[in-house]
Prior knowledge:
Elements: H1 2-33, H2 37-40, E1 63-67, E2 70-75, E3 80-89, H3 90-93, H4 117-120, E4 126-129, H5 140-145, E5 152-155, H6 157-160, H7 163-178, E6 180-187, E7 196-197, E8 202-203, E9 207-214, E10 221-228, E11 240-241, H8 243-250, H9 260-268, H10 299-323, H11 326-331
Antiparallel strand pairs: 1-2, 2-3, 3-6, 4-5, 6-9, 7-8, 9-10, 10-11
Amino acid sequence: MAKGKSKKKKHVVRRLLLLVLLLLLIFVALCLVTPSQKEMALAGTAAGEIADLELPSPVEGEQIIRHTGYTLSYNEEAEQPSWVAYCLTRDEAFGNAAEREDNFREDRAVRTGSATLDDYRSSGYDRGHMAPAADFKWSAEAMSDTFYLSNMSPQDGGLNRGLWADLEAIVRQMAVDNEKVYVVTGPVLTDGPFRTIGENKVAVPNQYYKVVLDYTDPDIKAIGFVLPNEKCEEDIQYYVRTVDEVEELTGLDFYPALPDEVEEIVESTVDIQAWSFRQFSSSSRSDDYTPGTVTDSSGATARLQNAFNEVFYTIKEEVFSALGISDLARTFGLI
């Protein structure tokens, strides 16, 4: 009788050990597939709106001017903007309230006086939009405001009408794909001296940059581009940079309103596979899309996933802390 009880007891112990081992394996597997501390910083952080998220830090000595739909920082010495920033939404990308009128004109809001039409006339350079007119077809006033010369820079025609125009169409598609994006564009004004055009000596940049931030769940990400002021022969992916690299080149600070831990992650890395490089077409609107709606059915699933990640992350922290191996777990990216 005692022998039978002993065998039964051993059998129970063995089953308990197997259960514990199974639970341990499941725990380790979940540790490997759920986010680390840095990755958790990006999870669910875009639920609230951040005012003026698109705006870089102010540049000392430059005038910040707000026009309908976009904001610029005017560099008087170069007679053009250091940066032009705006948020572009999916609905705005499909806007059709205004047609292009090409009403280029001086910007009376610039206290020191903007570049003039005479500066560009017969210069051999295009009046290159930094905030592109096609991004502002949602409003006649906004469209008109993009033709202020404070929003222009002397661009080589091969660039302005070539890969630069393609990039602008790609960004419009990024807004469609990601619901909305935060865009900053401008000339690189740190690698002079520059040749100049016109009586006002408008600087002709050697390069241009564009940075784009997607701050919509579930994928928070950013990407940068730097293109030379000439006809570009390479595919657009060749000109991709991290936002940090664009900051180092330009001396500008992009997206300072982001939480620090988020800014550090999204600006230091870029995943080309996470972005579409298709060009926008007004005919690309899907049949099931109507203005003001989001057709991505994965949103609820993503929110549930984020909630689970948050709960399990807390469990991981407690377990590794109790075992006294928190630092080791962080080293291997488990927390």
